[in-house]
Amino acid sequence: MHLSRNLLSGNSKYLFGFMLLCIAVICAAFSITGSDDFDMARREVLLRRIGHELLLQSGDSTSRVLPVKKIAANEYQVGFEHALTFQPGALVNITSRVLAKDPMADDYVVKVLNCGNSSVAYSYAISQNKKDDIVTCLGRKQPKACYMINIKFKPTGIITAKNGYLLGSLPFLAFIGFIFLRSVKPRRTISDDDQHSDIITLGSVLFDAKNRKLILNGKPTDLTGTETRLMLIFALSPNETIARNRLQKEIWEDEGVIVGRSLDMFISKLRKKLEPDPNINIVVIRGKGYRLEIGV
Predict the structure, then answer these.
(1) DSSP state letters, 171-221
(2) How many CB atoms lie within 10 A of CB 104?
(3) Which residues, other chains included, contact 196 with Cβ-Cβ below 8 Å and sequence gap of 6+?
(4) N or C: which end of the chain has fewer CB within 10 A?
(5) Architecture in CATH of 192-294
(6) For the segment 150-200, what is each residue's pLDDT rounded down to a tens digit?
(7) How far apart are the C-alpha atoms of 70 and 150, rounded to whole Å?
(8) Is 136 left (phi over 0), alpha (psi -120 to 50) or beta?
């Protein structure tokens, strides 16, 4: 029963750790989504600013810039209430200056389309690496007409980059979760059920916890109750270091008094009873505890 409670407690800790990890991932996802919405709205404001300054450059300070349309995942369209004329050089300069305030707008293509047939009146491309810019015909003023400006950004923009940050953080979150879960791994402790389990084979030694005996070469050796509980801890974790304070706590805690010398005394008694088999011994791990070493 005691073992069952410990395992349930351990499973609860596993569940808590898993839930904590999931909550962290969900919060990160919602945080990124909210940030994306803000950045998208800010980008649309910047695009309207481009339209506004282009109208002023053409001498129009009264007509409106139409609402910015998102026509694809990374492409926007700026329209105007009335026809206008523009200098390509002015469009390039205005766009470059305004989009400098958008940290993710390093690479983009601008197309000026005729409203009637969507033919391209003027276009150019800007890259993060300036030598890859494609800009022509800067001095040729475009005639007054109805124009739409399409601006397409490179896909590694706001959403792609930030989702990349989220995906990149998942291995880190998984690692943190693994460390947490490992740190709360349930430890098996002695219970009455353990003491009444079947005979445990330790090399050539048989350990009968139920009847409190060690059987070496067919010869039984009696154990006291304390020796049996101590031996059971070692038998359940052969060749593993058992912390000294764990042994003291599990063997003597119920009696209300823990005496360090008592542990050493019982370890010494067990060693003597195991002496007939040179391949099995309880060794001291300095500064840590003890280990039941079983040779091949």
Answers:
(1) HHHHHHHHHHHHHTPPPP---HHHHTSPPEEETTEEEETTTTEEEETTEEE
(2) 19
(3) 209, 210
(4) C
(5) Orthogonal Bundle (1.10)
(6) 999 988 644 454 555 555 656 666 666 666 555 544 444 444 444 445 688
(7) 10
(8) beta
